[in-house]
Request: fold
Amino acid sequence: MSAPVLEARGLVKLFGRVVGLDDVSLTVRAGEVLAVIGDNGAGKSTLIKCLSGAMVPDRGTILVDGEQVHFKRPQDARDAGIETVYQTLAVAPALDIASNLFLAREIRRKGPLGSVLRMLDTREMRRQAEEHVKRLGITTLQNIGQAVETLSGGQRQAVAVARAAAFGGKVVILDEPTAALGVRESGQVLRLVKDLRDQGLAVILISHNMPHVFEVADRVHIQRLGGCAGVVTPASHSMEDAVAIMTGAKTLTASAE
Reply:
């Protein structure tokens, strides 16, 4: 079995007397989809924020490729190859697809036009954006110069995921990517998740949708009351088992780490 790309050991996060994370460990490997499930208040969001640099754990260790890291802000995680797509997407509706893919990473023109006048190389960004989208196999984004505000919910999600995959390099974290989508658009996003895995990226998928989780996940990390209630696989446990463990109706004796 390959070594983890991203690993968390004994993460603890306290909010006054409220325990956000209680000694939580997690591993995800290249070419794997790890789903994180749990009821509201189980610590899913806190865990993801710690892994993505949006929050600093009070105790515990985070490792990338076996090396200990200290994320103090989201940019630190991005620099380490971890990209996060939050439920709010954080796309700029008025800009086109290419501009969104290069948001905060814009390519400037060569020479004085770029260095002095700070003009953007729109043609090069569109060329690279087309390459990224084509490599990911995203067929729903045909016109790279199209404004994001004219896209459907599923297409906007594809833009956000494409941006993460293009620059993530190692790990892509997806926070409820199908929550606001219909059946057809959800299917497109799930296919994109599988494509990311097939290209060797490590994917962490946070979702409440059990059928979606069991369709794409290789392993399922179950959060309960701030701690990890166990790790299962779709081959070893059913959706009903996972929900029972998540709610405390069932206890897991062995994990699938």
